[in-house]
Amino acid sequence: MSNRTMDEAARVFADPKAYADDVRLHEALTHLRANNPVAWVDNRPYRPFWAITKHADIMAIERANELFISEPRPLLATAAADDLAKEQLAAGTGLRTLIHMDDPHHRKIRAIGSDWFRPKAMRDLKVRVDELAKRYVDKMRDIGPECDFVTDIAVHFPLYVIMSLLGLPEDDYGRMHKLTQEMFGGDDDEYKRDGGSLEDQLAVLLDFFAYFSKLTASRREHPTDDLASAIANGLIDGEPLSDVDTVSYYVIVASAGHDTTKDAISGGLLALIENPAELERLQRDPGLMGTAVEEMVRWTTPVKEFMRTATEDTTVRGVDIAKGESVYLAYVSGNRDEEVFTDPFRFDVSRDPNKHVAFGYGIHFCLGAALARMEMNSLFTELLSRLESIELAGTPELQATTFVGGLKHLPIRYSLK
């Protein structure tokens, strides 16, 4: 049985500003988990969808990857943006990343980059990551006693890691950061390009295409030992990747590969500042760093949602979902589900088990999860071993978004050894 009456609380999913207001957001999500866990949302300018707020339902849908597929609506966008994306894909200048794909094509494309994120590759990369962590904690010391941790540190550290992995020149890092900010920040007045219109969003995409098309040509002519070369020269069934698939691969690695980690790092530090007893526990017992990193990822949930579309009539928690209808997987809600997490609104650096869904689940589990964990572990291990004091020096600001986001400003006052 389907209830298509809009619950007012469900409007948060169709309001980018809700993600910039933690109190309002979590009040709505808590209400929906208890009273309307499969909620109908019909709120222009978005096409209608079902919002899934319970952890168990999110996991079940992720597992049923033939019944619930990514195409044609892998994430929440306005109807006009959805239509434009289809037009651009048809024209050969759109995005079709791993998050847009379904098996078997998804599995084949994913395999091209997967070796670069396996344990051996992570071990080989750890020396570089540790070096960069020390560099950025040294930078904190040099620019202290105050900084905006997001713009001065959290943005740059994971960006340098992912650009090093791709093998891109350091001169291009600033451009890549700006394009990523504009792509994920289209709903935020501070980040969006110009007026934030569809044309402006398209211009960001075309800039990505121009940059990575040139990179592809270069790596095919002169292969190198980096991830960019592996992507450029990757084969699917003996054939080179299409231009769309090649550029899309770069975009998802270069943008999501650093922006989500930035959000987890900055939000994780804020959680430690707001929970000084947990900060003290972690400094006293660095062996808790592994569980602390998982808790930071759960707490911040940088990827707010993915969407899936039903290939057949089905039901979720007794609610009828018709073939062709879309479901919105509310990861932020799943990660505060009272049935899964004891005292879910408590930040606990020793939380175990911690079955968060911040990296997704199933075939779409985040390709770079191990890298993100390693970066966070390295940075916080370096920072907390040298941190003598820390406090807020202003009001933290969250980004307006419906997809990827977190803190955009975190002013802090601190002293370091």
CATH fourth-tier homologous superfamily? Cytochrome P450
Number of helices: 15
- Unreliable spans are none
Q: Sheet bearing the most strands, described?
A: 5 strands, mixed
Count of spatially separate domains: 1
Q: Gyration radius, to the nearest Å?
A: 21 Å
- Tell me the distance between the termini: 61 Å
Query: Proportion of β residues?
Result: 5-15%
Number of strands: 14
Fraction of residues in helices?
40-55%
Summing up helix and strand content along with how strands pair, one would put the structural category as alpha+beta
At CATH level 3, the topology is: Cytochrome p450
CATH class: Mainly Alpha
Structure description:
There is one protein chain. The protein is of the alpha+beta class and 417 residues long. The protein has a single domain (8-416), classed as Cytochrome P450 (Cytochrome p450), CATH 1.10.630.10. 49% of the residues lie in helices and 12% in strands. It is built from 15 helices and 14 strands. The strands form 5 sheets. Strands 1-2-10-7-3 form a 5-stranded mixed sheet. Helix 8 (173-184) packs across helix 11, helix 11 (243-274) crosses helix 13 (289-300) and helix 13 crosses helix 15. Its cofactor is heme. This is Cytochrome P450. InterPro entries: Cyt_P450 (IPR001128), Cyt_P450_B (IPR002397), Cyt_P450_CS (IPR017972), Cyt_P450_sf (IPR036396). Keywords: Heme, Iron, Metal-binding, Monooxygenase, Oxidoreductase.
